[in-house]
Amino acid sequence: MKRLFTPALVLLTFLNLISCETKKEKPQPKPYKAGVILSFDDAYVDEWYEADQVLRKYSWKATFNVCRIDSIGAPQLKKLHEMEQYGHEIAGHGYHHYNAVKFVQQNGIDQYLDQEIDPMIASLKKKNFKTTSFAYPYGERSDELDKALSSKFKIIRGRAFGGEAPEKQDSYFNNSKIVFAFDIDNSHIHFSIPYLLELLHYAKKNNKILILCSHKTVKEVTENYQTKIETLEFVCKYMKLNDLKFYKLSDLDDLLPQQ
Ligand SMILES: [Zn+2]
């Protein structure tokens, strides 16, 4: 009993009280949960639907950035609606899939909005999709474009083209509505499973949201711009084992600092 009240113990208890007080005075911002955004570009609806059937066992959530919405057939639109109803996000990827930077250089930003963005928004709305995010075709963007699109979309996604060390990668959410995705297509020069593992591990360790993009989902790779369903399963399994959260692009809007 005597030892319980030694001066050292009293001092320790006192210090502990002080540190608790300090914590109360300076609340730390609540960090969001580490996670991954899986996003898919273009209009590979049948292939995405097939991948979705395989990956639902992981309760996954993804974002599908659709271009040329008026060329998509009724059966595929039905599939997209079903996917949206399940909990995936349907986002925009251009009415024609123009290279935004080149188009603006040739025709100006007003024409870009008139031809590529406004008809896309109108058509997606007419077809009953709740679209609040946009992914640039080819990841081609500029500050001028970001500015012009920022009132039209909550989240705007470009591409992170490099294969640098994870701490230098741009493909993590950085509290901005302009975000960048790392491409996990097999043909992407910087893609490999060990590197993807490094990126995932960094997200887990540092409480980050990793943003990935892909195009056509396939069982076997036959050409460029294809991602193996196996790769997606690898990501989903890693996420389940390491308790990472599936985010959609639009989820990031809730995490942005208050203006
Ligand atoms: Zn595209």
From TrEMBL:
CDD domains according to UniProt: CE4_GLA_like_6s (cd10967)
Q: Which UniProt keywords apply?
A: Signal
Keyword Signal found:
yes
Gene Ontology cellular component annotations, sorted alphabetically? extracellular region
Localization, per the record, is: Secreted
Can you provide one Gene Ontology molecular function annotated for this UniProt record?
hydrolase activity, acting on carbon-nitrogen (but not peptide) bonds
UniProt KW Signal keyword: yes
**Where's the NodB homology domain?**
33-150
GO terms for biological process, alphabetical: carbohydrate metabolic process
Q: Can you tell which superkingdom this protein's organism belongs to?
A: Bacteria
Q: What is its main location?
A: secreted
| Entry's transmembrane regions | none
Recorded hits in PANTHER family, A to Z, give: POLY-BETA-1,6-N-ACETYL-D-GLUCOSAMINE N-DEACETYLASE, PTHR34216
What name has this protein been given in UniProt?
Polysaccharide deacetylase
User: Which organism's genome codes for this protein?
Assistant: Flavobacterium hercynium
